Every structure is written in structure tokens, then in C-alpha cells.
Amino acid sequence: MTARRPRVLVVGGGRLGGALALSLSQHRWPVSVLSRTDEGQSRVRALGLKVATPRDLAQARVALLCVPDKAVPEVAREMARRLGRVAALVHCAGALPLKALGAPRGRPLGSFHPLCAISDPRDSLAGHSVAISTRSRALKAVLRQMAKDLELPILEVPEKRRAAYHAGAVLSAGAMVALMSVAVEALGHAGIPEEAALPALLPLMRSAARGMEARGLSRGLTGPVARGDAGVVAAHLAALPPEAAEVYRLLSQRALRLAVSRLPPEVLDDLTKLLNGR
Fold it and tell me: What percentage of the chain carries pLDDT values higher than 70?
């Protein structure tokens, strides 16, 4: 694995596989995509990507497994039988350790997990981070070059801490969508339908993200907890349905920890008692 941009086989032509294959091919990496179904192969061709042939499998030096987590061990075993002896197996699952790939003798193993919520294969990866893991120095050099070309800042995650890393990633993406559903529910409780609530709230959420990006977590925090307005917080808790109110209370407790340095002791005490139900 000495080539700067070795031949890459992307296994799986879904959203992540398509996005990685498109991005790599746009940066002059030789890429082919392996998809088992006729429908999947049609999607690959529609993206302007090459459907992998037996020769592509034989010549590949890195196989990126872009398949569901539970499928990784089985697909890894299959690829270990079909690939050349020196080809690396690299899964793209955030939560899985390298041992999920098995222990094929002499074969480099790695992980390459972009921190990007991909809803379409044409989504850009540039500017997002990527978590990489491997014990092979040669494979690490390839994965780092891949990250550099795709403009992905690198996180190196210890194998024993992958679950905690992935939980944080999920909280910042899927859980954000779930949180938005609670916010939409709150507006619905005020008589505002979802088709009006969501487009009104999305720019607000984006403005909060820009504040975090510019000023960090504590200084980017806004709202009644940051202002120390216990009366508004109490009114919110009273106005919301029970489940939404509990989500609001738990997140406000977290917000209070971020705001503690800017609040007077008596205000901090009032908010603490209110949010703890005392």
C-alpha cells in the first residue's frame, strides 16, 4: 500500500457509500462501487460512478465497507475471501471497533467514519470531521491522505472509547432532529401547524449553531436560562405537555451548567430549585 491514492473499492452504494465514492472520484482517487442489487447498481451508474467488476475487486487496495453496522462482520468475511491478500478492510461505522472486521491474517484493518449527517449521496463531506482508527502505519497514511483530499479534519478515537465517541456524534445529529420534533410539538401546542413551525424554527436552530461556532458553548448559549429568567422558565414548564416539559427541564439543567459563571448566586439558586422540582 505504497501508492498515494491506491485503488479504492466502496462496498455499498447507499447514501454514505455514494457520497464517499463521489468525493473520492472528484479528487482523482480510482474508485469503483460494489452493490449487490440491480437497483443499487442503477443508482451507482446514475451518480456517474463505476460499478465494480471482478477485476476491480482483484486490484483494489482499500475496501471501504459502507454497510449497516450489523452487516459489517459478514461483509468483511465475504470481502476477505474476494479481495487480494494485501487489500485493507476499512469499515465506516462510528460505533464498531476494529475487531468487528474479524482477524484476517496479514490484512490491514481500519475505520473511517465521517461525522456528517448524509441524507443524499450528493451531500458534500468537505468541512466535516472524520474519525479514523488503524494499527497499520501504511493504512493510516492512506486514510490520512484520504481525509486531507476530502477536506476532513481528523479525530483519532481510542478503540475502547468508540461507543462514547459515537454517542456524542449521534447526540449532535439524530438527537438534534428529535429535539426539533419536540420544538415543533411545542409550537403545535400553541396552535401553529408543523408545516409552518418547522420552516420558522430551522433558521433559529441554524443561528444557534452559528453562535456556538463563533463563541463556543457557554458564550453561544441564549434564552431564559442564560438570562437567569426563572419566571419565563416556570411559564414554559407549565405550558408544555408532560413529555415535552421533561425534555425542556433536562436540557435547561444542562444549560444552567453552561450559564453558571454569568448568573448571580440567588438567581442560580432559584433556577436550580425550579428545574429540580423543589
Answer: 99
C-alpha 216, offset from chain centre: 20
Crossing angle of helices 242-259 and 194-220, rounded to 10° = 20
Q: Report the distance separating Cα 267 and Cα 275, nearest Å.
A: 12
pLDDT digits (tens, 9 = 90+) for 84-109: 988 999 999 999 999 999 987 889 99
Q: Are 156 and 165 in contact (CB under 8 A)?
A: no
Helix axes 194-220, 174-189, angle to 10 degrees: 120
Task: Report CA-CA distances (Å) from 46 to 18, 22, 43.
Answer: 10, 11, 5
Residue 111 neighbours by CB under 8 Å, 6+ apart: 90, 91, 92, 93, 96, 98, 131, 132, 133, 134
Burial of 238 (0-12, 13-18, 19+ CB in 10 A): exposed
9, amino acid identity = L
Residue-wise pLDDT tens digits, 232-242:
999 999 999 99
Q: Can you tell me the mean pLDDT for 202-219?
A: 96
Q: What does the alpha-carbon distance between residue 103 and residue 114 come to, in Å, rounded to a whole number?
A: 24
Contacts of 155 (CB under 8 A, 6+ apart): 115, 129, 130, 131, 132, 165
Please give the grid coordinates belonging to residue 155.
479525530
Q: Is 127 left (phi over 0), alpha (psi -120 to 50) or beta?
A: left
Report pTM: 0.84
